[in-house]
Request: fold
Amino acid sequence: MKIKNRVILLAFALSGIAALIYEVVWFRPLSLIFGSTVYAISTMLTAFIGGLALGSWIMSKYSDKLKNPLFAFALLEVLIGLYGLIIIGIFNWLPAPYIFIWNTFHPSFAVFSIAQFLLASLVLIVPTTFMGATWPIANRVYVKDIASLGKSTGILYSVNNFGAIIGSFSAGFVLIPILGIRLSSIFAAFLNLIAALLLYYLYRREKSEG
Reply:
């Protein structure tokens, strides 16, 4: 396997690890605000996964038109990492609007649920859209021809999923107990930034050779 392919897989694995660390870590403070009921957890999951789907859908339309997909991939990882560094501070501002939503809309369960979903989406939509956008662009830089599409896509998917398994396990059993919420999110952000550096290295390497 070429060095380029190995680096892309490593970067995408790091991205998968970070994404699931974020999901586990961010849901802890969000559950303190929104609650831990089935409805609250479903709202947060819907907002998180909805952002992933949105990002993948948007990038699928533009990934083939990008002149520098490796640079775009690296930029996405930087943006995800930066959001991972600041989002805990954003969580500190959530109780006030949540209390307002509760006081205003709680007599109507349907309206309150919609308002709660919109608030959760407002916080999660940006980073999860960036996360979702990494999948089509990773596919673009890793898959070379239509003949290897199935195999290459399967390898990408398995590597990212393996990273997700590591991320979810390490967040719940290692990072949060040892580092706490804030430092765990910062740790995940550094994984994104490392992935960005790897991808930027490939971009500069290709540019110098081309």
